[in-house]
């Protein structure tokens, strides 16, 4: 997709309700959806979970996962997306965790996950991207990336030939 309006239209056409589970973007994904007229028909809720405790208590992220893979990992993003899916009425969830400002190679690294029920089974996929720029530029790019990738995520999750990663 190329615009946020197309993302909202995609959700409407597919009768999908979205929830977000955001760490790095701190609610920016949900806010960008809310900027689009008619988005109330496709948005369930948004979790903002910066702290480890919030990830654990609100979304059920396993502390062992965090200890093993680190906060900025696809494994944590996947558990966030699945936790949101299990806790609300949304059909599809987007999650992210990352570092919008850090020293070294992890600067700008954001991990994304998308989860949904397909034929009665929870499916989740994830990816890691690196964005350039200052803190808020990284956050903005990450939020837009998640939303503009939503159709690809959903289509991959629905395709039995695609193995979610």
Automatic annotation (TrEMBL):
InterPro entries: CinA-like_C, CinA_C. Keywords: Hydrolase. SUPFAM superfamilies: CinA-like (SSF142433). Coiled coil: none annotated. Residues 5-153 form the CinA C-terminal domain. Pfam families: CinA (PF02464). One of its GO terms (molecular function) is hydrolase activity. NCBIfam families: PncC_domain. This is Amidohydrolase, PncC family. It comes from Halopseudomonas litoralis.
């Amino acid at each position: 997709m190329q615009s946020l309006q197309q993302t909202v239209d995609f959700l409407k056409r597919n009768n999908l309700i979205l929830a977000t589970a955001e760490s790095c973007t701190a609610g920016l994904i949900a806010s960008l959806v809310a900027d689009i007229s008619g988005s109330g028909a496709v948005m369930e809720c948004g979790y903002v979970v910066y702290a480890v405790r919030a990830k654990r208590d609100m979304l059920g992220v396993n502390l062992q996962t965090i200890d093993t893979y680190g906060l900025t990992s696809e494994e944590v993003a996947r558990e966030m997306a699945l936790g949101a899916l299990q806790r609300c009425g949304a059909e599809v969830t987007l999650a992210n965790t990352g570092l919008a400002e850090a020293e070294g190679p992890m600067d700008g690294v954001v991990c994304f996950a998308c989860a949904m029920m397909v034929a009665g089974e929870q499916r989740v996929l994830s990816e890691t991207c690196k964005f350039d720029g200052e803190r808020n530029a990284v956050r903005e790019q990450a939020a837009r990336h998640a939303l503009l990738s939503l159709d690809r995520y959903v289509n991959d999750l629905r395709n039995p030939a695609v193995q979610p990663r």
